[in-house]
Design a protein that fits this description.
It comes from Psychrobacter halodurans. By secondary structure, the chain is an alpha/beta fold. It contains two helices and nine strands. The strands form three sheets. The protein has a four-stranded mixed sheet. The chain has a three-stranded mixed sheet with strand order 1-6-7.
């Protein structure tokens, strides 16, 4: 299961509305950073047949099969602190992260 807070869902809905198209967002991982893995977000206009689709607070979230094992149970939030804003990921599979918070290990 992949979930979003209302704040995160509202942010994604606003972006999709501003784009004027899109089925939802894809959340995945890629090899990066000093800890090994980083989150990747992209808009989905046409879902892949292999994607797993979740619905959370009116937003469709698509996960590719390779990322799903690392992201099962993920909670996405959206935070704004001063001039900084962005998604915050709470991942029960995460074992650690680098000092700058850009990458993680499972």
């Amino acid at each position: 299961m992949i979930e979003m807070t209302e704040r995160a869902a509202q942010h994604v809905r606003e972006f999709l509305d501003n784009r004027g198209k899109g089925e939802g967002i894809r959340v995945g991982i890629r090899t990066a950073g000093c800890s090994g893995l980083a989150y990747v977000l992209e808009f989905v206009d046409t879902p892949d047949d292999n994607d797993t689709r979740y619905e959370s607070r009116g937003v469709s979230i698509f996960i590719d099969p390779k990322s799903l094992v690392y992201l099962d149970g993920l909670l996405m939030d959206y935070e704004k602190e001063g001039l900084n804003e962005g998604f915050k990921f709470t991942n029960p599979n995460q074992k650690g992260e680098c000092g700058c918070g850009e990458s993680f290990t499972v």
